[in-house]
């Protein structure tokens, strides 16, 4: 029972450490895209995610190297850790949603989607959304390292290169988000979503545990001796997806900050109604949500990287992205149609593809 409780409260402890580090470590102030609901002023954010991530992972590795904790401790406590994260996500959601004014929707819908748009506690020293994504990303990385360590310790003489490639690519994914943390202030997640069960539970439980489902499924399996070309295909698919997702997000960020600024040496092509403008060139001329195609491609590359394509569990991750992003694209399309009106119709005519160019 004591061992179960240790695993149960492990994510609580990790999230607490991340919270303290986020508040006390140096940070730079960045103005975001979202605006205060009452004043209309652009919100300001303290950005130090990469530093918090590095210190947290460093503390974990130091504890493992000194023998205080086993390298694969999180692997052995993955089920109790998941249970603890589920409970914490539920409790945190129950705490943050009811205390905010109702927006008039059904209670269950508001609990799921949230009421508060951009809560910034501690006098604006923290932002709830930024903290949640940082916490989920950091625990995900710790899980990846621990799950991989279990594979290394189980098969020390025949380690699967697929496990190594998977962790390298996924770590790139996590670190990339934190390096460009300021850019994500201009993405849908940060300026459109509210803080409810979907975001809170998603970041505290789903993100750090489900995202690692591929490695969870194969960490205790032997080296599959997959062909080298499969690893090459996996890396190419992942990097193709990363190029689309990162390129699209960076182009949008640059355009919203300075509509006249060149991106990759090219002048922005946009549609305008005289007051508002929409990107219709570059990445955003390929499809209306080419960044979603990038996310799905990265997830597909990760599933392939493990070298066991016949195992179904790693494929749950890219399938999740399809299930998440296809409805989100539809929702965003309705929101943009209401916001931009005739300008959005012109954009849809100019860029007819929703996600996959010339296909969907």
Strand order of the largest sheet: 1-2
Q: Could you give a short account of the major beta sheet?
A: 2 strands, antiparallel
Structural class: mainly alpha
Give start-end ranges of low-pLDDT stretches: none
**Count of distinct strands:** 4
Average pLDDT metric: 92
Radius of gyration: 21 Å
Order of helices and strands: HEEHHHHHHHHHHEEHHH
The total count of helices amounts to: 14
What form results from the Cα inertia axes?
Answer: globular
Portion in beta strands: 5-15%
Q: How helical, in percent, are the residues?
A: 55-70%
What features would you highlight for this structure?
360 residues; mainly alpha; two-stranded antiparallel sheet; 61% helix; globular
Structure description:
The chain has 360 residues and is mainly alpha-helical. It has 14 helices and four strands. It has helices at 2-24, 49-65, 73-76, 78-96, 107-113, 128-154, 161-179, 188-191, 197-210, 213-218, 228-257, 290-305, 316-340, 342-350; strands at residues 28-35, 42-47, 270-272, 277-279. The strands form two sheets. A two-stranded antiparallel sheet has the order 1-2. Strands 3-4 form a two-stranded antiparallel ribbon. Helix 6 (128-154) runs parallel beside helix 9 and helix 11 packs antiparallel against helix 12 (290-305).
């Amino acid at each position: 029972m004591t061992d179960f409780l240790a695993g149960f409260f492990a994510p609580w402890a990790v999230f607490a450490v991340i919270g303290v580090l986020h508040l006390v470590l140096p940070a730079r102030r960045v103005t975001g895209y979202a605006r205060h609901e009452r004043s209309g002023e652009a919100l300001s954010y303290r950005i130090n995610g990469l530093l918090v991530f590095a210190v947290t992972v460093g503390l974990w590795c130091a504890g493992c190297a000194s023998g205080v904790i086993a390298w694969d401790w999180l692997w052995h406590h993955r089920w109790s850790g998941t249970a603890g994260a589920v409970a914490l996500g539920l409790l945190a959601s129950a705490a943050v949603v009811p205390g905010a004014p109702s927006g008039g929707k059904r209670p269950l819908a508001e609990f799921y989607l949230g009421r508060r748009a951009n809560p910034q506690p501690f006098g604006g020293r923290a932002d709830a959304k930024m903290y949640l994504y940082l916490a989920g990303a950091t625990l995900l990385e710790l899980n990846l390292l621990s799950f991989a360590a279990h594979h290394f310790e189980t098969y020390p003489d025949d380690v699967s290169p697929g496990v190594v490639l998977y962790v390298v690519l996924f770590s790139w994914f996590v670190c990339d988000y934190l390096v460009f943390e300021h850019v994500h202030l201009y993405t849908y997640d940060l300026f459109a979503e509210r803080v409810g069960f979907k975001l809170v539970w998603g970041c505290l439980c789903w993100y750090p545990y489900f995202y690692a489902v591929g490695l969870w499924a194969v960490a205790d399996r032997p080296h599959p001796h997959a062909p080298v070309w499969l690893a090459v295909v996996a890396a190419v698919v992942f990097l193709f997806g990363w190029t689309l997702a990162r390129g699209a997000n960076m182009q949008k960020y640059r355009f919203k900050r300075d509509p006249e600024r060149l991106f990759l040496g090219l002048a922005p092509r946009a549609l305008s109604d005289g007051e508002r403008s929409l990107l219709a060139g570059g990445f955003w001329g390929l499809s209306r949500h080419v960044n979603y195609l990038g996310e799905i491609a990265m997830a597909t590359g990760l599933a392939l990287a493990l070298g066991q394509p016949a195992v179904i569990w790693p494929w749950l991750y890219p399938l999740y992205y399809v299930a998440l992003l296809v409805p989100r694209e539809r929702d965003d399309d309705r929101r943009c149609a209401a916001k931009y009106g005739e300008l959005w119709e012109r954009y849809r005519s100019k860029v007819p593809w929703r996600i996959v160019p010339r296909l969907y």
